[in-house]
């Protein structure tokens, strides 16, 4: 048997995260071997054609709010021509009084100026967004077809080798490098540095080196509805995207008379079933009424025309896991992106590439990634105790609550 090829850098996973990281490395002059069990890029959840992007301004930890602002700016710069900027409106939550000054001060505290976020009363929102509700207007909010984006990032390149239809089942530390093994325990390639961007597949790969990550699947279904122009819904359909309890894209006219409207998504924790469900479409019909504050409307007028089902990967604390795995030198993770793949993949590309190239100190200066934010993303937050070297692989179980690394405290 011939000796497996050796590469300095291998990326496992060709979804939006793996594709973005690979492209970033290529731009930095590095050679990359990309491996995926599918026959091409963006075969799983990253085949999502209706992903939405905007800074997070609602409930969540201060770290999450700060991180999504940085990630949004990186994503906006990253996606270029494939970035469909149509704006996103986030209505005031039901039962909550709108206070413009209070909301404006809150937005500015997040570092969001008027070009990024603007508090609107119901009349202003009707004029700007076609929605008669108060809330926050995010004019730079956008949507993205993840599949198109991933494919464009992986166009042929002299320093890129892609191994399609190749499944990596486990890792093994052997002779000072990482061996990537198939299901028969045969070595596919070896590498000095391995970047794992395999969503839920990351959990099994980490278990093969005695690292247990708190990852779980979340099934989501988007519904594609047709709405007749004669329907009572017709004059209420949004011309911008909405985000709140669920989200929707701008309604689009099609086939000369009806509207096409994408609404979602269901949130089914612990499930991986990719079959479309009528119950999920019904759930999204109810979400549509809530988004438009239109409880008296008939859900029967939202005719099902199709759906998209994807399985997201999330961590216990709902933050992504991005960065070097200090317990296993040479291994880097980009997983648990949840429903913010557009944002987190752009951030992961900058963070992981800086770490791979050992240029960590530039992260804060160039991208606003202060040390506490990097720590909030790090895999190390889930582990306590002595860190084992790869020559002494000990089992490292995840804690039920994240343990943040010593040093600057994450706020």
TrEMBL record:
<dbReference type="InterPro" id="IPR036188">
    <property type="entry name" value="FAD/NAD-bd_sf"/>
</dbReference>
<dbReference type="GO" id="GO:0004808">
    <property type="term" value="F:tRNA (5-methylaminomethyl-2-thiouridylate)(34)-methyltransferase activity"/>
</dbReference>
<keyword id="KW-0489">Methyltransferase</keyword>
<dbReference type="GO" id="GO:0032259">
    <property type="term" value="P:methylation"/>
</dbReference>
<dbReference type="GO" id="GO:0008033">
    <property type="term" value="P:tRNA processing"/>
</dbReference>
<keyword id="KW-0560">Oxidoreductase</keyword>
<keyword id="KW-0285">Flavoprotein</keyword>
<feature type="domain" description="FAD dependent oxidoreductase">
    <location>
        <begin position="9"/>
        <end position="354"/>
    </location>
</feature>
<keyword id="KW-0819">tRNA processing</keyword>
<protein>
    <submittedName>
        <fullName>tRNA 5-methylaminomethyl-2-thiouridine biosynthesis bifunctional protein</fullName>
        <ecNumber>1.5.-.-</ecNumber>
        <ecNumber>2.1.1.61</ecNumber>
    </submittedName>
</protein>
<keyword id="KW-0808">Transferase</keyword>
<keyword id="KW-0949">S-adenosyl-L-methionine</keyword>
<dbReference type="GO" id="GO:0016645">
    <property type="term" value="F:oxidoreductase activity, acting on the CH-NH group of donors"/>
</dbReference>
<dbReference type="Pfam" id="PF01266">
    <property type="entry name" value="DAO"/>
</dbReference>
<dbReference type="InterPro" id="IPR017610">
    <property type="entry name" value="tRNA_S-uridine_synth_MnmC_C"/>
</dbReference>
<keyword id="KW-0274">FAD</keyword>
<dbReference type="GO" id="GO:0005737">
    <property type="term" value="C:cytoplasm"/>
</dbReference>
<keyword id="KW-0511">Multifunctional enzyme</keyword>
<keyword id="KW-0963">Cytoplasm</keyword>
<dbReference type="InterPro" id="IPR006076">
    <property type="entry name" value="FAD-dep_OxRdtase"/>
</dbReference>
């Amino acid at each position: 048997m011939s000796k497996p090829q050796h590469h300095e850098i291998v990326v496992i996973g060709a979804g939006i995260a793996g594709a973005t990281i690979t492209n970033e490395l290529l731009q930095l002059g590095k050679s990359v071997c990309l491996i995926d069990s599918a026959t091409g890029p963006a075969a799983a959840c990253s085949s999502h054609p209706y992903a939405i992007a905007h800074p997070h301004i609602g409930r969540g930890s201060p770290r999450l709010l700060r991180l999504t602002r940085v990630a949004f700016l990186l994503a906006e710069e990253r996606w270029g021509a494939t970035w469909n900027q149509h704006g996103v409106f986030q209505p005031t939550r039901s039962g909550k009084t709108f206070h413009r000054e209070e909301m404006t001060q809150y937005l500015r505290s997040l570092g969001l100026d008027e070009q990024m976020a603007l508090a609107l009363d119901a009349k202003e929102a009707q004029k700007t967004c076609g929605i008669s509700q108060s809330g926050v207007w995010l004019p730079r909010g956008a949507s993205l077809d993840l599949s198109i984006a991933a494919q464009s990032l992986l166009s042929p390149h002299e320093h890129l080798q892609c191994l399609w239809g190749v499944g990596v089942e486990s890792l093994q530390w052997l002779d000072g490098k990482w061996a990537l093994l198939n299901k028969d325990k045969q070595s596919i390639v070896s590498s000095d540095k391995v970047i794992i961007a395999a969503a839920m597949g990351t959990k099994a790969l980490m278990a093969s080196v005695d690292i247990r990550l708190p990852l779980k699947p979340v099934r989501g279904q988007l519904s594609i509805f047709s709405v007749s122009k004669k329907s009572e819904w017709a004059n209420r359909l949004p011309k911008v995207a909405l985000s709140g309890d669920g989200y929707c894209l701008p309604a689009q006219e099609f086939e000369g008379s009806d509207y096409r409207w994408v609404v979602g998504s269901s949130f089914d924790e612990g499930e991986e079933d990719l079959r479309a469900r009528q119950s999920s479409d019904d759930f999204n019909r109810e979400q549509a009424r809530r988004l438009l504050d239109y409880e008296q409307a008939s859900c029967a007028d939202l005719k099902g025309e199709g759906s998209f089902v994807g399985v997201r990967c999330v961590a216990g604390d709902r933050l992504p896991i991005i960065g070097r795995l200090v317990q296993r030198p040479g291994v880097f993770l980009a997983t648990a992106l949840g429903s913010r793949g557009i944002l987190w993949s752009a951030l992961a590309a900058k963070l992981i590439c800086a770490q791979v190239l050992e240029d960590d100190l530039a992260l804060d200066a160039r991208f606003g990634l202060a040390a506490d934010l990097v720590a909030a993303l790090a895999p190390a937050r889930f582990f306590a105790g002595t860190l084992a070297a790869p020559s002494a692989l000990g089992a490292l179980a995840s804690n039920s609550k994240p343990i943040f690394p010593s040093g600057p405290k994450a706020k």
